[in-house]
Design goal:
The structure holds 2 protein chains of 2 kinds. By secondary structure, chain A is an alpha+beta fold. Chain A has 3 domains: about 50 residues, no CATH class; about 80 residues, no CATH class; about 100 residues, Immunoglobulin-like. Chain A is built from 7 helices and 8 strands. In chain A, about 30% of the residues are buried. Chain B is an all-alpha fold. Chain B has 2 domains: about 130 residues, RNA polymerase sigma factor, region 2, helix turn helix motif (Rna Polymerase Sigma Factor, Chain: A, Orthogonal Bundle); about 70 residues, Arc Repressor Mutant, subunit A (Orthogonal Bundle), CATH 1.10.10. The N terminus of chain B is likely disordered. The chains are: A alpha+beta, B mainly alpha. At the A-B interface, helix 1, helix 2, helix 3 and helix 4 of A face helix 3, helix 4, helix 5, helix 6 and helix 7 of B.
């Protein structure tokens, strides 16, 4: 009568720790080699490995609490990269540089940069054509405007740097977030519907130590429902930021219930 | 633009297409809409695993982004089976890389692409959700559950677990094995319940 081979307990224990992924490299290599030649241990591994693989599911964050979820801007950031149509890598390149941060831009920044670059390009055309057709003074005005646009582009770069900075503070709420970095503060919103005719969105700030909201910029989202606003006040002296729908031209105090209220701590 | 002409064009179709295998087949054809649906259904899992391992929301977001771009860029790494278990494995490896500040993975972690028979084993549990796995884990005695969770989410070896808990190494290994056997039994029960 044949008897089934039973490996020593310590070997089976090592197989379990290997299935969990908690063995040091040298031991893991030894167990892996052993599994190819020991049926009993291979069966134990086959039994325990799916259980170990499912442990991660317990970490799924609940969807009913925004504090446990990633920023609402993460998805647009990823989808901007996906929809950019860049050729795929072969997979090895992604695995070969796991510690490198993937350089992606949020969709709204991609769109903003594209607009800026298009304007600059058209300025070059104007300048070249002007060499033939326009007077010296017209060229001077074009040059002045070009400088102004270059300045705007520099501001845009500064905004991108602030929004993507690892040291920026992010206050996420619903479909938007307030980002502060040093003295600068931004409101970034997505999936924002166009306001009713004759209405705009207006930002508000609450200076520290006060109880009255101060009117700030008015804005409308772009065609994709995205808006990024650089707030004028110093973020370090601002206690809260809000956004409401107001008549065109803005209001001196909110006339509708704010759609976004974010205390800055 | 990626996904145009191949996309899941309407919401109704989205509602019925919840099978990750089907979605991944579409992702292989560069269907950005299918990818978006995969993100919607799995981002809290990926982010949760990364957050549990790294303990930092910003770093967890970076890992979430990297994992999903890997899914998009290298969809053939998933060869069928339990997509959730696979993406957890990818996330865990990536998060441990960040935790250990390294660019090349040690051999400690399990490979992301599994042999076919192992994929089949995992597929049997494809319908288990987070809550049922949490309940199964909670059914383990703490002296078994804690070293298992430390080994999985802590990114440390059994020797380090033994040192931290001031417990003999052999005892820790035995507790991990006993705990995983009980966990497997509890998950089997959850599947058939």
């Amino acid at each position: 009568m044949s008897r089934r081979f039973e490996p020593p307990h310590d070997v089976l224990d090592d197989v379990a720790v290997y299935a969990l992924g908690a063995l040091p490299p040298a031991d893991a290599r030894r167990v892996r080699e052993h599994l190819s030649s020991c049926e009993a241990c291979a069966q134990e591994y086959a039994r325990l490995r799916p259980a170990a693989a499912l442990i991660g599911l317990s970490a799924e964050t609940p969807g009913d609490d925004a504090r446990n979820c990633p920023s609402t801007l993460l998805k647009p950031r990823i989808m901007a990269q996906v929809r950019s149509g860049k050729p795929r890598s072969d997979g090895r390149s992604a695995a070969a540089s796991p510690a490198k941060r993937v350089p992606t831009w949020p969709a709204y920044l991609v769109a903003a940069a594209c607009v800026a670059i298009a304007i600059i390009s058209s300025m070059w055309n104007v300048a070249l054509t002007g060499q033939l057709k326009q007077t010296q003074s017209e060229l001077a005005r074009a040059s002045q405007r070009s400088s102004s646009l270059a300045g705007a582009l520099a501001d845009e770069r500064s905004t991108i740097s602030d929004l993507l900075g690892s040291d920026a503070k992010r206050y996420v709420q619903n479909n938007g977030e307030v980002v502060t970095r040093g003295s600068r503060a931004y409101i970034a919103m997505h999936d924002l519907p166009q306001p009713p005719r004759g209405r705009v969105y207006q930002a508000w700030t609450l200076p520290k130590g006060t109880t009255k909201m101060v009117p700030s910029l008015t804005f409308v989202p772009d065609a994709h429902g995205v808006a990024v606003i650089a707030l004028p006040p110093d973020a370090r002296t601002t206690a809260a930021v809000a956004v409401s729908v107001e008549p065109e031209g803005g209001s001196k105090q909110p006339t509708t219930k704010p759609i976004l209220v974010v205390p800055l701590t | 633009m990626a996904g145009r002409g191949h996309g899941l064009r309407n919401a109704k179709r989205r509602e019925v297409t919840d099978d990750a295998d089907v979605l991944m087949a579409l992702v292989r054809e560069q269907d950005a809409d299918a990818f978006e649906l995969l993100y919607d259904t799995h981002h809290r899992l990926v982010y949760g695993v990364a957050l549990r391992i790294l303990g930092d929301a910003g770093a967890a977001e970076d890992v979430t982004q990297a994992v999903f771009l890997k899914v998009w860029n290298s969809p053939n790494l998933f060869r069928g089976g339990n997509f959730a278990a696979w993406i957890v494995r990818v996330t865990r490896n990536r998060a441990l890389d960040v935790l250990r500040g390294r660019a090349v993975r040690n051999e400690t972690e399990l490979p992301e692409a599994l042999p076919e028979n192992e994929d089949m084993e995992e597929a049997a549990f494809a319908r288990l959700d987070a809550e049922r796995v949490r309940r199964a884990l909670a059914s383990l005695p703490s002296e078994q559950r804690e070293p298992i969770e430390l080994g999985f989410f802590g990114g440390i070896t059994h020797e380090e677990i033994a040192r931290r808990s001031n417990t003999p190494l052999g005892t820790i290994k035995t507790r991990i094995r006993s705990g995983l056997r009980k966990l497997r039994a509890a998950l089997d029960e959850a599947v058939t319940a």
